[in-house]
Design a protein that fits this description.
This protein has 415 residues and is of the alpha+beta class. It has helices at residues 5-15, 21-59, 75-78, 82-87, 121-124, 153-159, 198-201, 209-215, 235-245, 255-258, 260-298, 300-308, 313-344, 346-357, 378-395, 397-404, 408-413; strands spanning 66-69, 92-107, 110-119, 134-137, 148-152, 166-174, 180-193, 204-208, 223-229, 251-254.
């Protein structure tokens, strides 16, 4: 098979066994460093992808994929066709009305500010299923006129409330004369939910929408329609259709905007972690530089003979670039294999390490997440491989230029 001279020589140098021990040692260190750096980068990013997905699922366990706010009194009656227009949007699988009010939960001697959400239990099951989050009691007891309430696990702990206990809610209501008047009503705790997030478990309480309306009849300004889509990741693209279905004064928001701070923090952490782990790959690339510099010094006679027989500096440069690239890319490919294998088996590796070293990484008494999730993305593999390959290619340039500039006469003078 025809091969360019530089590629042929570079591959011969890779296969050659007549290297000094230290040169061979540096070669293997560079290859192992690249493999470990790439594998660590893939595994860490996969774990962070898993945590991001876990966070998204917990955020959306009680939150809608999108919501349309209906301002003004009797907002729902003012536009009765809105719900039908929203249901007709491609990808929408559920629409449910709700009302949210600020309230103060009172159970002597404790008081706690809450968000009281009035829901239609039947419609809500198609938007944010509650049954899977119930840890005590029965949410089916939410019925119109029952004054039943479902509270978060953190709320129950802070107030010392259990299923069957009475809980008084104080709601500030603006009267007809624009005066704020407190309304006090006693509810009965029928269930406790646990979503695993402080924003839900420590601040949210659920009651039937008719009970909340009767508690604050003039609070229609807090009315909303909550939407659930078939794919939560496609919601930002579908928001144009949601906004097109609304009328003047109605506003639409999606989950990515409501929880932007959470995911911005995760993205910053992923970016910083990727940059830090890329330093490992860079260190391994510096090992390639050291190895090639020593190979160039070792092959000065070969370089001089090649130049004497008419080889151009470009050919000499290409030979050492080939050698460095083959060694570097072998390490990158090994790292990709190790990284994919590790990312796909994190769920098995971590328990084995915990058993071996007798420690618990995520204690169930402290953390809501008791396992390390992992989610491997192809785009992460592509950019990690591209970055590592470019670093290794860049590492070969200086030694190759040094080899190309070696004067033949001076190299042969003392041979």
């Amino acid at each position: 098979m025809f091969q360019p001279l530089s590629v042929f020589i570079g591959l011969r140098y890779v296969r050659a066994r007549q290297h000094r021990f230290f040169v061979s040692f540096i070669t293997w260190v560079a290859l192992a460093g690249l493999a470990l750096g790439v594998a660590a980068l893939i595994i860490i990013l996969s774990v962070m992808n898993g945590f991001e997905s876990e966070l998204r699922e917990r955020l959306l366990s009680l939150a809608a994929h999108a919501r349309v706010s209906l301002p003004g009194p009797a907002a729902a009656a003012a536009d009765p066709g809105l719900e039908q227009r929203l249901r007709a949007i491609p990808g929408v699988v559920g629409v449910a009305p709700c009302i949210e009010l600020s309230a103060l939960a009172v159970r002597e001697p404790e008081m706690l500010p809450l968000v009281l959400r009035g829901i239609d239990p039947v419609a809500e099951e198609r938007v944010a299923p509650l049954a899977s989050l119930i840890v005590d009691g029965d949410a089916r007891a939410l019925a119109a006129g029952s004054d039943a309430i479902v509270i978060g696990a953190a709320v129950a702990e802070l107030l010392g409330a259990r299923v069957g206990d009475a809980l008084r809610l104080l709601v500030p209501v603006v009267g007809a004369d624009s005066r704020v008047e407190p309304v006090l009503r006693e509810f009965r705790v029928v269930a406790v939910f646990e979503a695993g997030l402080a924003d839900h478990d420590g601040t949210l309480a659920l009651a039937h929408i008719d009970d909340v309306r009767s508690l604050a009849p003039a609070a229609e300004g807090a009315a909303q329609l909550r939407l659930r889509f078939q794919d939560a990741l496609q919601v930002p693209q579908a928001m144009a259709a949601v906004r097109a279905a609304t009328r003047a004064g109605q506003t639409a928001h999606d989950w990515s905007a409501d929880h932007a701070n959470y995911f911005r923090a995760v993205r910053i952490e992923k970016t910083m972690m990727a940059l830090i782990l890329l330093l490992i790959v860079a260190v391994a690339a510096f090992n390639i530089v050291a190895m090639l510099v020593m190979v160039v010094n070792d092959k000065r006679t070969d370089i001089a003979i090649l130049r004497t027989f008419g080889a151009r500096p470009r050919t000499v440069m290409g030979a050492f670039i080939t050698q460095g690239v083959v060694i570097g890319w072998a390490g990158v490919l090994a790292g990709l294999g190790l990284g994919v294998l590790g990312a796909l088996n994190v769920g098995r590796i971590v328990p084995a390490l915990e058993k071996l070293f007798r420690f618990r990484m995520f204690d169930a008494d402290v953390y809501y997440i008791t396992r390390i999730p992992s989610e491997l993305h192809v785009r992460d593999l592509l950019w990690i491989a591209a970055a590592a390959l470019l670093l290794t290619l860049g590492a070969t340039l200086y030694p190759a230029l040094r080899a190309a500039r070696t004067p033949p006469a001076e190299a042969l003078r003392y041979e």
